[in-house]
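Title: Prediction job returns without error message
Component: structure pipeline
Severity: low
Priority: P3
Assignee: unassigned

Description:
Job completed but the reporter wants confirmation the result is attached to the right record. Sequence as submitted:
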Amino acid sequence: MKKLLGLLTILFAMHTVQAQDFDKVKTNLLLGKIDDAKSDYDKILAKKANLVGTPAAYYWKSKIYSAYHKDPVKNPNAYNESKKALDEYIKAEPSLQLAKDNGQEPFFDIYIKCFKSGVDSFNVKAWKGAAEYFASVVKYSDIIFTQGWASSKQKFDTTAIIYAGYSNQNAGNLDETIFYYKKLVDNKVATPELLDVYRYLLIQLTERKDKVQFDTYLAMSVAAYPNESWEEYNT
């Protein structure tokens, strides 16, 4: 137990030191001095190579390029840089403590950008692109809602999951389609428009001869839409 507490103390101390290394970056971002923040960031990493690849380095890079993304005409690659850094940050610090302490702007910026691009792709029936965008939307929205960062207190983004399911279905991505549709059914999302989602899921489970899951999801379908006829699926 003492060894564990000692390790946690060391890790916390390292986290604090890393965060302090980027204090100038933080201050300049708060003042809206993005170029100065980027310059300071580059100087810090050049001076302290041990910070490269740390959660703090990834987080502050995502913040810098998220700020640059506010002017996508002037900074066309800012979104890609912010997203790459944020994806690395999420892997490097699962607790997301830096984001909790210093702001979640990159999460929202990428979520919004992916959602818009996903809808644009969906509307022109570019299903593969739409599926990829909405996979990111669901990923980031799950983090946002799980952490309670959104003004809405819902558990997940229902619209994003529906878009992700439809996009993957039209793109021919069967496993991904089933994954998203299961997520809707598991969470008892049942509107008149989603009846076909329940039917589609049962058909695919029948095709896969997965009786255990079929029975489970048939029961959930009956509970969600008690006035529908489900006997033909059972047969």
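Comment from assignee: result matches the submitted record. The two ends are 57 Å apart (CA to CA).
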